[in-house]
Amino acid sequence: MSETTVYPFSTATGTDVRVRFCPSPTGTPHVGLVRTAMFNWAYARHTGGTFIFRIEDTDPARDSEESYLQLKDALRWLKLDWDEGVDAGGPHGPYRQSERYDIYRDVVEKLKASGHIYESFATGEEIEARNVALGRDPKQGYDNFERDLTEEQRAAYRAEGRAPALRLKVPDTEISFDDLVRGEITFPAGSFSDFVVVRPNGHPLYPFVNPVDDALMGVTHVLRGEDLLSSTPRQIALYQALIEIGLTTFIPRFGHLPYVMGDKNKKLSKRDPESNLFLHRERGFIPEGLLNYLSLLGWSLSKDQDVFSVDELVAAFDVEDVNPNPARFDLKKAESINGDHIRLLEPADFAARIVPYLVSAGVVDLPLGDAREAVLTAAAPLIQERIALLGEAPGMLGFLFVTSEALVHEADALASLPKNAADILAASVTTLESIPESEWTHDRVHEALTSALIEGLGLKPRVAFGPLRVAISGRKVSPPLFESMEILGRSESLARLVLLAGSPAVVGSPAVVEGPAA
């Protein structure tokens, strides 16, 4: 490699932009990993470029098919569609590294022939011993001393039964690049030594296969986590070699995205519950809400707008606007933004999205049937303005799908009943019995109970309607009371009031029961 050669970086813009998301299939998808995927996807969609989804599965000890399927599930759930890659195909396949070993062997041979990589027989213990003998820190690492082994020396090592690793001969010059997020970064000459690209068993390593795949797939912009920044000069050194053998004509632009931090400003790890993408899905995050929040971890649409659509994200996103400072994952803010997006859904869409949560909680079975479908259609709008997570729907709506005999009264709800709950319930029953079935609407019910309890008995609304809420829903917090009573109907509503009025919790039993009296 010439020390004076200028190696060009990509100048691609617009539709020529090619980015990739290339995770290793290990474990459950992490929100930081998903944010990386989203930023790559958003940049491709913003520029009109190409988004490639590639799998780096060259570590059989850690990789799993389950994780691979989860990665695909995650991107599809979030609607981060890809233009080339696994399942989609494309001109640069295969898109799983485990299926590309013949390609890597061919590139290795070309780099060996050109003198860019060489055989290295030294063991870790020998490298440490050499450092000690030369008065250096034993952990200083490799010092490139095998660059110029003679054929006789290599033959002698082989005669001992040693199999060589292959190392890249790195340039003895500084390596600089203009990071799209962090600006100009320079690694001085000697910052790192010749590094292993192929193990003695012939297995190519990540620092080799990752840039080779990027080069062969024409990747123009590498947007990845800050934790990989230290490996970038090694990748650039390999790119320079790949340019010299004609495998590519440019080095991609790099942009290193900020860390996602958890509690106490520690990097969010896979052990932290909030890092688990599917846990958020199980709790009831919707793709629009989660993508919106994750995009705020290092980027913003504007100073005064935290809630925006995916289309608005795509229209405005530029990787050069990403903030290099670490971003903290704030679960409460994430839930709040998710709630904002829930409220933006069309009512029918919202109702459809909560069905899986109702089914999972055992509230309903599929198919719903006409009667339950009607209850869901009427009830869903009552909670759409009140929940931040779809997973809250079963607790809020479950009482509407059971009979009075099966309704469970929560302990804290029973404990909240005032001493005069029996009188309130009795007065309510008397009042409501006068309303015919044909007039049973939430407005009519509200009007009648207001007249009887607030105007007639002089009660405050909270005291007057609290026992009714517990009787109807079994909870202290529920959807709007009178609308719920309209959905349940006259007969079921009256039955619930009578049932609670006669329960031990109301008539004076010292025991707090969870459920209506037998």
Polypeptide structure, described:
With 518 residues, the protein is mainly alpha-helical. The chain is built from 21 helices and twelve strands. The strands form five sheets. The protein has a three-stranded parallel β-sheet. The chain has a three-stranded antiparallel β-sheet with strand order 4-5-8. Helix 2 (65-77) links the parallel strand 2 and strand 3 (84-85). Helix 16 packs across helix 18. The longest helix is centred in the first third of the chain and has 17 residues, at 31-47. It is found in: Cytoplasm. A motif ('HIGH' region) lies at residues 23-33. Keywords: Aminoacyl-tRNA synthetase, ATP-binding, Cytoplasm, Ligase, Nucleotide-binding, Protein biosynthesis.
Enumerate the spans where pLDDT stays under 50 for 5 or more consecutive residues: 509-518
- Mean pLDDT, to the nearest integer, reads 94
Q: Please count the helical segments.
A: 21
The backbone outline, from C-alpha atoms, is elongated
The portion of residues forming beta strands comes to: 5-15%
Largest sheet composition:
3 strands, parallel
Lateral strand order in the biggest sheet: 1-2-3
The helicity comes to 40-55%
Q: First CA to last CA: what distance?
A: 88 Å
Radius of gyration: 32 Å
Q: Which structural category fits the helices and strands?
A: mainly alpha
User: Count the strands?
Assistant: 12
GO molecular function: glutamate-tRNA ligase activity
Main location: cytoplasm
Binding site for ATP: 270
Pfam family, one: Anticodon_2
